[in-house]
Amino acid sequence: ARSLISSGRLSIGSLLSFFLYQKPMSANLREIMYCYGETMSTVGVISKVLSYVDRTPKCKKEGGLAPEKLEGRIVFQNVTFSYPSAAADKPALKSVSLEVQPGKVTALVGLSGSGKSSCVSLLKRLYEPQEGLILLDGEPLHHYNQKYFHRKVALVSQNPVLFSGSLRYNIEYGLKDCSVEKVKEVAKKIDAHDFISEMEDGYDTDVGESGGKLAGGQKQCIAIVRALIREPRVIILDEATSRLDVNAEQAVLKEVLARGRTVLIVAHQLRIAENADHIVMLQDGSVQEEGTHEELMRKKGCYYRLKAELFSESG
C-alpha cells in the first residue's frame, strides 16, 4: 500500500475508503454464504413436498354424480383389501359384506386389528379395495364427485385435528358465508354452547396449536359441531365421543340421527355399541356376527365373549 501511495497510483482517501467498506463487505459475504446454505436446505424440503404434490392418485377416476337428494344407504359387497405395505396373503379385510341403513345407528365392534379402521378408510376413499364394491345409494363410491362425496360423508375421529385459531374459525373452516348464529345453533344441539360461552372470548377463543388449550372432550365436541354444520347425510364416529360424559354423548347421538342421517360408529368400547340399532362384529378382517346387542348376547358367540372379556378386564 505504501509503494502504491508513493507512486501516486493509490490515494489516501481511497485507502481509507477500502478499510471503511471492508468490515460491512465481510459481514455481507458471511450473510450470503449463510443464505446460500439455508436456500439449499429449503430446496431439499421443497423437492420432497413437490414429490408428494406431483404424485398421481391411484384411486379410480372421479365421477360426476352429485344428486340433490342422498338417502345414505351404504353397502359393502365382498370387499377384500390389503394395505400397500402389507403382504398380499395378509389382507386387512376378507370378503366383507355388510349394510348400513339410513336413519339408524350401526356399530362396528371388534378387537384391535379386526378391520374396523380399514372399513372406515375405504368408506372415506383413502384407499381402494382390491376386490368387491362399496356402494352409496346403489352407486360405487368412485362414481360420485369427490367434493360432493366428502361433504356428504363426514368423519369425526377420537383425536380430531384442530388448527391454531379461534373456535369459530375451526368450526367454519372451508365454509363460505357461515354466520355465527348458525354455529351457535348447531353447538346448542349437542350441548357445546354452554362450555364455549363460559370461555373468556367465547367463540373467538384461541384453541392454541393443534387445539392444545382445550380438553379432550372439548376438542371432540368442536369436531362434531364442525361435521354437523356441513349437514352430511352419513356421519362416521370413530370413538368420537369417548371423552364425553353420558349426557353429552346422548345429545350428540340424538342430533346426528336427526333428519334420518346414516350413522356408523366404530366402537372399541362396547358401552355405546349396546344401544346401536345394528352391530357388526369383526374378527381378523371378516364379519363374524351381526344383530342387535340382545340378539348377539343370546347367541353367546364372539360378541358375547368379547363383552365378557372386556367386563372382566374392567372389573
UniProtKB/TrEMBL annotation:
One of its GO terms (molecular function) is ABC-type oligopeptide transporter activity. Pfam families: ABC_tran. It comes from the Eukaryota. Residues 74-309 form the ABC transporter domain. It is a multi-pass membrane protein. It is found in: Endomembrane system. GO terms for cellular component: endomembrane system; membrane. The keyword Translocase applies. Transmembrane segments: none annotated. Keywords: ATP-binding, Membrane, Nucleotide-binding, Peptide transport, Protein transport, Translocase, Transmembrane, Transmembrane helix, Transport. Gene3D superfamilies: ABC transporter type 1, transmembrane domain, P-loop containing nucleotide triphosphate hydrolases. SUPFAM superfamilies: P-loop containing nucleoside triphosphate hydrolases. Signal peptide: none annotated. The keyword Ribosomal protein does not apply. PANTHER family: ATP-DEPENDENT PERMEASE MDL1, MITOCHONDRIAL (PTHR43394), TRANSPORTER 2, ATP BINDING CASSETTE SUBFAMILY B (PTHR43394:SF14). Belongs to the ABC transporter superfamily. ABCB family. MHC peptide exporter (TC 3.A.1.209) subfamily. This is ABC transporter domain-containing protein. It comes from Nothobranchius kadleci (African annual killifish). The gene is BX324231.1.
